[in-house]
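Proteins fold reproducibly. Look at a sample protein:
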Amino acid sequence: MDSSPPFKAPTPAALAGVRVVEMGQLIAGPFCGKTLGEFGADVVKIEAPGAGDPLRNWRLIKEGTSVWWQVQSRNKRSVALDLRQKEGQDIARQLIAEADVLVENFRPGTLEAWGMSPEELHRLNPGLVMLRISGYGQTGPYRDLPGFGAIGEAMGGLRHLTGEPGRVPVRVGVSIGDTLAALHGTIGVLTALYHRKVNGGQGQVIDVALHEAVFNVMESLVPEYSAFGVVREAAGSALPGIAPSNAYPCQDGWVLVAGNGDSIFKRLMDAIGRPDLGAAADLADNAGRVARVHEIDAAIGAWSAQHSVQQVLDVLGAARVPAGKVYTAKDIVEDPHYRARDMLLTQETRDGYSVEVPGIVPKLSATPGTIRNSAPHLGDDTDAVLTEAGLTAEQIALLRSKGVIQ
């Protein structure tokens, strides 16, 4: 089967010339590699021979491979390399010596045990930008504990706020802790690359903990506790302290309404036939509306329950009140706005079928992200990458015979 890349970059790539070695698996590290690859970085993904990254087999499988994998690993090259063997570690060091960025999300101490501590790698490659994502960070009393995204969400304060008051905390529905860590890691990589460019070419280590990435987006959680002793609690679909902002029932579903601006609130009340609330002096600002939020929510809910979702959206759209329905995957795929902004792309896989996948974010005007290559089979690029690193065909064949590569 032809595994040649089906995509070509039509515009200059912002990160062209940046070489990334990805030594992570599953979500956090690889999502960072995905993001860098979409903007032109050459991402070499090191996977264990045999099964490779477990994400290859997560959730729904088509033609033997997860469709999630097709998104997470596009624009990457796969090298199947056994890092438990010394010869595999030597090859990894050889690849890292020529890289700009190393991304890893092993438990702290794993790279050190393989002779790849930051100190050793920076002696080998002083300009290396090294991103380390872990559950609790590279320091501190919890550093050696195993950490997953869900645990980071709990420790970061997010899980306490998700769900209905008094009921079991629920997960967001996606691996948000891992993704937040990956995005913070990407910011760190780009910042460090810029610093390297303007400050003498020195690399550095970026230490991202899953729970800290979550904690960083927790808004006023700690300041409110510090200043007032208030512990913020779960509030279901409402936005505590901001009114009105909630989900409201319709005849055929739910609609989210954000009517918390002063002028927006007046337009919202006129639209639902409650101008008395819109004109109330004590509801002219957010503080007053918060004090009567249950009354306001009841009024909006009583109105919305008499209409379909689309009818509610039509009325509120005409009144210039922010509102939206709760989208499913089907809604997203059928929405013209998603397609108008290239947020749904058809991606050809190396297994011979096409699949619709999310587009690329953020959107750059001069150097937009692109899908240049489909996600690789395990070890698709082992020979090519090792040849680029200077190994001969005979050396590669010997490594394969020993099981060091696949």
Q: What stands out?
A: Residues 67 and 353 are 11 Å apart (CA to CA).
